[in-house]
Amino acid sequence: MRRAVVGTLVAVLAMAGCENEILLPLDEPAAPENVEAYYYAGVVYVTWELGAGWDEDSFRVYSKRVTDQDWFLIAEVSSCAGGVCGYEDRNIVAGRTYEYYVAAVDPDSGVETASDYSVEVEVPQPEAPPVPTGTAVVALDNATYVRWSSNARSASDFSFYRVYLDEGDGDEYLLGETDSEGFLDLLAANGTTYRYFVTAVDVQGHESAGSTVASGTPRPDYTGEWIYDFTDVPESSGFRFQPDEGTNPVVSGSSASRHFRLEVDDAGWWLVPGPQTEVYPEGFETTALRCGPASDASCTDVDRAPISGYVTRDVGLTPQASYVMRVRGDDGLAHYGVIRVVLLGFDQSDRALMIFDWAYQLQADNLALVTR
Question: How far apart are CA 121 and CA 343, in angstroms?
Answer without folding.
Answer: 45
